[in-house]
Specification:
The structure holds two protein chains of two kinds.
Chain A: E1 25-36, E2 41-47, H1 50-53, E3 60-63, E4 77-80, E5 83-85, E6 90-96, H2 100-105, E7 113-120, E8 132-138, H3 141-154, E9 158-165, H4 174-180, E10 181-187, H5 195-207, E11 213-217, H6 220-233, E12 237-240, E13 256-261, E14 264-269, E15 276-278
Chain B: E1 6-8, E2 11-13, E3 17-19, E4 40-41, E5 58-61, E6 64-67, H1 76-87, E7 94-98, H2 103-112, E8 120-124, H3 141-154, E9 159-162, H4 170-179, E10 184-187, E11 191-193, E12 210-213, H5 218-231, E13 236-239, H6 245-254, E14 258-261, H7 263-267, H8 271-286
Parallel strand pairs in B: 3-14, 4-7, 7-8, 8-9, 9-10, 10-13, 13-14
Antiparallel strand pairs in B: 1-2, 5-6, 6-12, 11-12
Helix pairs in contact in B: 2-3, 3-4, 4-5, 5-6, 6-8
The chains are: A alpha/beta, B alpha/beta.
Chain lengths: ~280, ~325
């Protein structure tokens, strides 16, 4: 396979390496499909292990990426789950090809195997009394919110998904969001993605009692908007965050971000204290 | 059946594989059975809470990574009240890594962590990310001697001194630590480095300089282990860039009695377990009954004639 350092142990973990009491594991997963969704995004489907399939909405895996050049991609790349299909034993990721790691990952094809570490982190929470939730995101952040929207839809919660994108073809996962709720696309091409317009949409949803909770991921601008409106109207919210990560398990303290809790700023780790955080505690980036 | 057990300055380890301080916590039990490790090594504890350095805290480089995390810790009280209990849910000996700003506080810290449940103290006098310039006590043999001497007087627990590859003469520092009463040496911490983004002209590390670690530094540290092993009688723990079973064997042959692993666990969190199993298989295959036989077993090349340049075809 396309790893620079062939001598280095890659994905040789066995069942005994992660005994049953461990919630996460390193597992080697066969790639089932790996297609371009558009010019920037790829859809990766793997056959996953039993532990991997227990992933909850908002949780992530650390994917070991092949190298796109001659130098090893040392660290795994954190990737949130796009879809869990437990009946067929498949796990799906939707990601943007952005840097060395994802360029390396993009080389994998059916028949290859992918070393995955997970499931990791704290995902989205859905309170039983929420009957209407609003999902707002942009770009690849939308993929992160697909599983919670799906679970909400299955539980009979009304989901309104505001999908922000540069152009209609970049509004990711629109089909999935349409299958579980109402989709509102806001675009750069027609100017509807302007923050003032998104604010109007949120205010209308609040007026129509369609916003018991907010979920956001992928845009600092939209996060700040949702945080402000959530605060003004007392609507609870959650935001999924990203950060450069190394171990993914907690000890290294590399993936910290600053949060504000009770007026006090503190560093928290995206990998174990997140990646999903209380919207009002997030400072953005 | 291979005997993997080793004894490091009064601490009996079931096998020679330990995590390197800073790369490990009980949170690893999300993925592996911690009871299989040779010892548990805590993240470095200081008296007070330390937030750590500004992100970005890490960047990949060709031979590994450069980091400046800055020893974030919730402080001594939290370690004693909460983390110690978490570590003691597991059976391997616990090594508590400590830091301090002053020599006196190092001694006080050594005294304060000398509680039941802590089996050894690793004195981290070598972290290059503690101060922006990379300075620390282990750069200098006199400073090292003073810290270790005062710590020695403050505790009866086994004391391991973690040395710095950034010292001008690491063997002089090793000898100073031994003379001051250290029971073992960890060789070593990371190598001070710098990586600059040529688009932004900024360091890739929020704090500027960082510590280089990973397989790229291994030959340097193996050499330092070998030099220190010749200079001191106390056991040495090799630490730097271990990715495979053969890397562990190299450290042992160079003179180490055990090893610490960090970088590998970021890539393969089950790597330490795979290496423990692999080391046993390696010994079986080579007919080695006790892993401790490997310590310092490197052999020197026999004396050989040298030749004139012209004789090997260089004109």
């Amino acid at each position: 396979m396309k790893y620079a350092s062939a001598a280095i142990t890659v994905g040789t973990a066995t069942e005994e390496h992660s005994p049953p009491q461990c919630p996460a594991e390193e597992s080697l997963c066969p790639v089932v499909a790996h297609e371009w969704v558009n010019d920037e995004y790829r859809h990766l489907v793997v056959k996953a292990s039993r532990k991997a399939l227990a992933a909850q909405p908002g949780q992530f895996f650390q994917l070991l990426c092949p190298t796109p050049d001659e130098v090893e991609v040392w660290f795994r790349r954190p990737q949130s789950v796009y879809r869990v299909a437990r009946s067929s034993g498949r796990l799906e990721f939707l990601y943007k090809v952005a840097g060395r790691g994802t360029r390396g990952l993009a080389q994998l094809g059916p028949g290859d195997t992918l070393s995955m570490l997970g499931p990791l982190g704290i995902g989205f929470r859905l309170e039983p009394h929420w009957k209407n939730v609003v999902v707002l995101g942009r770009g690849v952040g939308l993929a992160t919110m697909a599983p919670i929207s799906q679970v909400a839809g299955e539980l009979g919660v009304r989901v309104t998904a505001i999908l922000s994108a540069r152009s209609p073809d970049l509004a990711l996962a629109a089909d999935l969001f349409e299958s579980v709720g109402t989709v509102i696309k806001v675009l750069d091409t027609d100017g509807t993605s302007a923050i003032e317009n998104v604010e109007k949409i949120l205010m209308r949803l609040i007026a129509e009692n369609k916003a018991d909770a907010f979920f956001t991921c992928g845009s600092n601008r939209l996060l700040q908007l949702m945080k402000r409106i959530g605060k003004e109207h007392g609507i609870p919210g959650q935001a999924a965050m990203e950060q450069i990560m190394a171990c993914g398990l907690g000890p290294c303290y590399i993936c910290v971000r600053t949060f504000e809790v009770g007026g006090r700023k503190e560093m928290r780790r995206v990998c174990v204290e997140g990646p999903v955080f209380d919207l009002q505690e997030v400072l953005g980036w | 059946m291979v005997d993997l057990s080793v004894n490091i300055g009064g601490v009996a380890l079931p096998n020679p594989i330990m995590p390197a301080s800073g790369t490990f916590s009980t949170e690893f039990s999300q993925v592996i059975d911690l009871n299989r490790l040779g010892a548990l090594v805590s993240k470095t504890v200081s008296r007070k809470y330390r937030a750590g350095n500004p992100p970005p805290r890490v960047s990949e480089v060709q031979g590994g990574m450069i980091n400046s995390i800055g020893l974030p810790t919730k402080g001594l009280e939290y370690f004693l009240d909460v983390q110690l209990r978490e570590y003691k849910q597991f059976t391997p000996p616990l090594v508590c890594s400590i830091t301090a700003e002053t020599i006196e506080d190092f001694a006080d810290m050594a005294r304060d962590v000398s509680v039941p449940g802590v089996d050894a103290i690793e004195v981290n006098i070598s972290c290059p990310t503690r101060q922006p310039g990379g300075g620390n006590f282990a750069l200098n043999e006199e400073h090292t001697y003073k810290v270790v001497k005062l710590c020695r007087a403050a505790t009866t627990k086994p004391l391991w001194a973690k040395l710095s590859p950034n010292a001008g003469d690491i063997t002089a520092v090793a000898e100073a630590a031994e003379k001051a009463g250290a029971d073992a040496l960890t060789v070593s911490n990371t190598i001070l480095g710098l990586k600059i983004n040529t688009d932004t002209f900024l360091s890739y590390i929020g704090n500027g300089y960082g510590g280089l670690s990973g397989p790229g530094i291994k030959p340097i540290i193996v050499r330092m282990v070998n030099e220190c092993a010749k200079a001191v009688k106390i056991p040495i723990i090799g630490c730097g860039g271990i990715m495979t079973v053969e890397d562990v064997v190299e450290y042992l042959l160079a003179g180490a009695s055990a090893v610490e692993i960090g970088f590998l666990s970021f890539r393969n969190p089950t790597g330490m377990i795979a290496i423990i199993e692999g080391l046993e298989r390696w010994c079986e295959k080579k007919g080695i009954e006790r892993v401790s036989e490997l310590t310092g077993a490197m052999v020197a090349h026999p004396p050989r004639d040298t030749y004139e340049a012209g004789m090997i075809g260089i004109s």
